C-alpha cells in the first residue's frame, strides 16, 4: 500500500495562494463550455469573433472546458473605488439563465455596450479624481 507523504509545498499552504496574479490583462473574457455537449467549436467561434472585433482592446480571452451543459461568458474588468483599481466579475451570458445561445450580433452588442460603458466611467472618474487632487 502506498503511503502519502507531505511535501514542503503541502506544509506551506497559504490563503494568499488563491489570490490572482497582478499581471492579469484586463478586460479578461472567459468562455466556459461543456465538453460533453461538444460546444468547443461554438466557444472558439465566439472567442474568434471577440478577438476579431475588439482586437487590442481586450486583455485576454480564455476558453475554459467544463461539464454539465455549461456555456457561460464572463468578463473581468477594472473599476475605481476610492482611488484604488479593483477587479469585478460580471456574467455577460449564461445559457441556462438566458435561455439558449446568443446570436453573434446580440452578443457583440452586449459586450460593446458593457465594455465601453464601464471604461467611460472608469476614465471619467479617474480624470475627475485627478482634477480634484490637483
Automatic annotation (TrEMBL):
Keywords from the UniProt entry: Membrane, Redox-active center, Transmembrane, Transmembrane helix
Residues passing through the membrane, by range: 105-133
InterPro entries reported for this sequence: Selenoprotein_Rdx-typ (IPR011893), Thioredoxin-like_sf (IPR036249)
Pfam family, one: Rdx
Coiled-coil parts of chain: none
SUPFAM superfamilies given in the database record: Thioredoxin-like
NCBIfam families membership: CXXU_selWTH
Name under which the protein is recorded: Uncharacterized protein
Native organism taxonomy: Eukaryota, Fungi, Dikarya, Ascomycota, Pezizomycotina
Amino acid at each position: 500500500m502506498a503511503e502519502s507523504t507531505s511535501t514542503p509545498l503541502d506544509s506551506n499552504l497559504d490563503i494568499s495562494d488563491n489570490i490572482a496574479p497582478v499581471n492579469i490583462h484586463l478586460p479578461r473574457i472567459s468562455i466556459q463550455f461543456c465538453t460533453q455537449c461538444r460546444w468547443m467549436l461554438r466557444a472558439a467561434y465566439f472567442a474568434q469573433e471577440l478577438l476579431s472585433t475588439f482586437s487590442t482592446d481586450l486583455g485576454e480571452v480564455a476558453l475554459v472546458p467544463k461539464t454539465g451543459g455549461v456555456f457561460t461568458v464572463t468578463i473581468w474588468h477594472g473599476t475605481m473605488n476610492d482611488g484604488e483599481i479593483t477587479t469585478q466579475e460580471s456574467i455577460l451570458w449564461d445559457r441556462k439563465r438566458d435561455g439558449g445561445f446568443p446570436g453573434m450580433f446580440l452578443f457583440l452588442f452586449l459586450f460593446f455596450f458593457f465594455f465601453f460603458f464601464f471604461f467611460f466611467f472608469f476614465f471619467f472618474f479617474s480624470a475627475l479624481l485627478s482634477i480634484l487632487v490637483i
